[in-house]
Amino acid sequence: MTPINRRRFLAGAGTAAVGTAAASAGLASTASGAANPTPGEIVAGQGLLDRVPFDGRYQAGILTPRQDQITIVALDSLAPSRSALALVLQELTGRMRALATGGPAAQAPLDAPPPDSGTIGPVILPDQLTITVAFGPSLFDARYGLAAQRPPGLIEMPRFTNDEIDPARAGGDLLLQICANHRDTVVHAFREIMRVLDGSFAIRWTLDGFVGENRGPSARSSTRNLFAFRDGTANPDVTDSALMHRLVWVNPGQGPAWAVDGTFQVIRTIRMHVEFWDRVGLEEQQTMIGRVRTTGAPLGGTNEFENPRYDLDPHGRRIPLNAHIRLANPRTNATANRRILRRSYSYHRGIDAAGTLDQGLLFVAFNQDPARQYAVIQKKLSIEPMIDYITPVGGGYYFAPPGTGGPRGWLGESLFAT
Amino acid sequence: MWLRRAALAALAAAALASGGCGSQASSLSHAEQRYTKALEAADAPPAVGFEQPVPAGFLRAPIAEYRHYAEGVAAGLAPEVQAVQAALARNDRSAAEAAWSVAFAHYLSLGAVYGEFGTLNQSIDGLPGGLPGGVDDPRFTGLHRLEYGLWTGQPLRRLEPVAARLRADVRQLTRVLPTVALPALDYVTRAHEILEDAERDFLSGTSVPWSGQGVLATQASLSATNVVFRTLGPLIGQPLHSNIAGRLAILGQVFSSIRKDHGGSLPTLGGLRPQEREQLDGATAGALQALQSIPVYLNTTPTRPTPKLPG
């Protein structure tokens, strides 16, 4: 994320327009100062002016630190031909770029339907919006002549032990991951993007997610999932470029040339049976996870980021051998290469047929090779005691192509150039 | 109250007879005396739990009683599967569905022993979710394979081998059941887990996807839970005992009233009236809120301090 220069942004977007937006929201536009912030200061304080660069070697929304809000959308292509599909992707990229960059919303004559819904006002503030595109394995079937270009790792998500996958909540030709600091920005972007996709793509399934607020103790502390445990503690360091090229990005020689600098995205909608979980003793909860619920420290420790030192606990007397964190990441040299980059969210989608809360984890992970990484971890987790409290109900394997490379590029360009 | 004390004395005697507290003495061990005393005192509050773990010997008699119950249930399964086979042979789908429902509910009323006989449980009661071939996977067998075939219009002839296999598996179950271990920790946990599973899998409909027999399945789970609670009852002090008994009774009444309003049989999930649905969901959740205290209350192992992480 690049914090954008507020003065330059306001100049570019038209200060008057932001002022108008603020005024219409009932914000007084008066002299600067803590007591009477200007409209620009108000939106800056909420992160609304923060912008994530859209164009680049890699797509945004992968190494980008998690924004607070997400919507995942899976779509099936209705495009009649390969060239029609490529055209839609070009148009989609243009719309995504405009939304992520921000600026005055497009206008039309008064008697025409407005080209922007206007739900976030006349000036689109970037709000760290990222929209990440990925292709499902089904896009590489016979329809568009892309079969030979399918990255070998892009297969239909295997059925893992304990899976109860609902086909209506899984798969899809195209996946969009829309993230931003605020929910209204995500909802607006989804709606605008569908104007481009309507007629060419049908929505197959969608799911909204959120991140728990950081409630400390430090800015670095991981936030909690809906089982109340801190999640994401042991994620690999996204600022370590060499590590990202070992674990996340596809390098030359690893599959078709067009896929270089892309990555495999794994989505799992994991229902968490929270009422059941809440009726389990804390000690049992902690031994299932392997961490202390309050601090997030590995059992026996005091600080979240402590090394659990499995080498000193070979029989699992401190952290059981089937604890979640131990199975998922044994922290040995041999297992270092199977780590994944997690970017998960919590979801709450109402109630189920039995009137119980339909809450869970919208698991999002990026990895270089699911067969070597995600699938291995998931198979190890098949014996964890936590399986009684969760049910994987949806998701899929997808491939996020490389970034646009620059302001003239489009997502999928390298694939369709083949 | 004298009833509870009498039951306790009987329990203690059973524990001694089975060598539960070491064979050194003809009197109760210190742990058992402490627990007995605390239980008697618990006719008054505190509501939940004792300071000390329950002596494991006290759970021998309840577990033995449950095992006896489960063996009886298992023995009854074979003729019920036979009834399914007979209906299939007559090519009578609705009779086969009715016979299936009886056998399915009866199997679920095994309750607390589920999961203790591993692969046999999978082949009798497994769902196709984790199988690579889904509903077409050859390893998809048993009650749910029959459910799938019966309610999706598959030719009944094709289900006959499935039913034959189920009958063999059920026979095997009666042989295996007397030998399965039922550890104390598992048993007291099942006091709430049977109904937890029912709420998660049956009331939601996810584990009865074709028949919709979630109401029947939940009632079978309640039956098993009632037996577990009855066996553990003498070990549970007041007011917790009354609270649980009351919640279980309310749930039982909900089933009776639904049955009465539907001509003497339980409807499918889809056949519940909205008000019945709310009462059933609510009474199940209420029972679970009460039952959640049993595992900690009847914990047989003292909490062990976690070794410190050297740092």
Radius of gyration of chain A: 22 Å
Mean pLDDT of chain B: 86
Question: So what's the overall shape of chain B?
Answer: globular
What is the count of helical runs of chain B?
A: 12
| Helix residue percentage of chain A | 10-25%
**Element string of chain B (H = helix, E = strand):** HHHHHHHHHHHH
Query: Terminal Cα separation of chain A, in Å?
Result: 32 Å
Beta-strand content estimate of chain B: under 5%
Oligomer: heterodimer
The main sheet of chain A comes to: 5 strands, antiparallel
Unreliable runs of chain B, pLDDT <50, ≥5 residues? 1-26, 43-49
Calculate the mean pLDDT score of chain A and round it: 91
Model description:
The complex is a heterodimer of chains A (418) and B (311). Chain A has eleven helices and eleven strands. Chain A has helices at 6-13, 15-24, 39-45, 82-101, 183-197, 241-247, 274-278, 282-289, 324-328, 374-380, 413-416; strands at 69-77, 103-104, 123-124, 130-135, 174-180, 201-210, 263-272, 341-342, 345-351, 357-367, 390-400. In chain A, β9 and β10 form a beta hairpin. In chain A, α4 packs antiparallel against α5 (183-197). Chain B has helices at residues 2-17, 30-41, 60-89, 93-108, 118-125, 142-151, 160-176, 184-203, 214-232, 240-261, 274-291, 294-297. In chain B, α3 runs antiparallel to α7 and α3 packs antiparallel against α9. Classes of the chains: A alpha+beta (418), B mainly alpha (311). The A-B interface holds A 158-165, 273, 275-276, 279-281, 283, 297-302, 306, 308-309, 312-313, 317-318, 352-356, 388, 391 and B 127, 129-132, 134, 192-193, 196, 199-200, 203-206, 269, 277-278, 281-282, 284-285, 288-289, 292, 295-296, 303, 306-311.
